[in-house]
Amino acid sequence: MSDWTLRESLATTSGTVRWDRFGDPGGEPVVLLHGTPFSSYVWHEIAPALAGAGHHVHVWDMAGYGTSDMHPDQDVSLGAQGRILTELLAHWGLREPSVVAHDFGGCVALRAHLLHGARYRRLALVDPVALEPWGSPFFRLVGQHSHVFEQLPAALHEALVREYVTSASHLGLRPATLDALVGPWTGERGQAAFYRQIAQADQRYTDDIQPLYPTLDLPVTVCWGTEDTWIPFAKGQELAALIPGARLVPVPEAGHLVPLDAPARLTSEVLTFLRA
């Protein structure tokens, strides 16, 4: 899947989101959620592997991300994304899929399940944004002054995004992979969208649900890159301890971008979890 293209779309209250699915329609459904500032492209190695193992894999770009709509005054908050996921599951006709969620996608999956009634067969959380406090000093600085950063010259903005995305990886990203992740945030439309999603990031979206984690009643695995400098491994230990029966899986030599730093290891762990 070197040419990662999402062929389908769904109109939502936050604009049209792009999505796609791969594999045997009769296979167990699996939904993959990306985080920020990324897109469904983070799954471009793992999605075909899961599909090849017999699963029906669903991916989407969150509103305001990747190839989905980006427009002024758009609600791209974690609250909106949780509602959109619920809409997508209904649109796909998935009553109880397994879900694998990375970074912001973890909060989105948890909100859809805990607040909006979305049902999952299993839930795998990969370095998720789920516990307070969160947001790096850079992330908070940009959020407080997004109107200033939006005015950066295009070349300076792109250099900033490239450095930021690169810092999520422990092993380093291939040039083509980095280009695919940074590309949607370039140009006038993409630059505004990049700072919009940071400006709308708010810890209250995890504060809403953190007290509910002990009520989770489904199989949960928590995978965490041991070299994650964005959200330290200790947060994975804390999260797993809050969720009844959760299994913590350290992923060595991986940073925050586990799906790209350790795709084979993560695929193996996910497949083991799905088959349990």
Count up the domains. Answer: 1
- The chain-level structural class is alpha/beta
Specify the CATH homologous superfamily: Alpha/Beta hydrolase fold, catalytic domain
Q: Please provide the ordered H/E string of secondary-structure elements.
A: EEEHEHEHEHHHHHHEHEHH
Name the beta content range. 15-25%
Q: Please summarize the sheet with the most strands.
A: 8 strands, mixed
Description:
The protein has 12 helices and 8 strands. The chain is an alpha/beta fold and 276 residues long. The chain has a single domain (8-135, 203-275), classed as Alpha/Beta hydrolase fold, catalytic domain (Rossmann fold, 3-Layer(aba) Sandwich), CATH 3.40.50. Strand 5 (98-102), helix 3 and strand 6 form a beta-alpha-beta unit. Helix 2 packs across helix 3 (104-116) and helix 4 (137-144) packs across helix 8 (187-199). The model has no long low-confidence stretch (mean pLDDT 96). Residues 29-263 form the AB hydrolase-1 domain.
